[in-house]
Amino acid sequence: MQRDSGGSGNDRAVILFLIALGVLLPPGLWVWAGAGRPWWWLYAAWFAVIAAIAVLRTRAPR
Questions:
Q1: Cβ neighbours of 4 (radius 10 Å)
Q2: Closest by alpha carbon to 42, among 33, 51, 54?
């Protein structure tokens, strides 16, 4: 197997995960700990991240 130097889907998926972790963790803790906030919001945000990673993985050239 050869790796292309143009950035594969795996690389982009890892980068997207790390960015999502940095962006969602502080507000996620705020939402999770806050009274009266919708508890499901954090799960919805993580679902969106997982779906985006899945799309990147399926579009990656083999």
A1: 9
A2: 33
Please give the Cα distance from 25 to 17 (Å, whole number).
11
Judged against a pLDDT cut of 70, whether residue 51 lies above it is answered with yes
pLDDT at 1 over 50: no
Tokens 């997982």 -> residue? 50
Q: How far is CA 42 from CA 4, 24, 50, 54, 56, in A?
A: 35, 8, 12, 18, 21
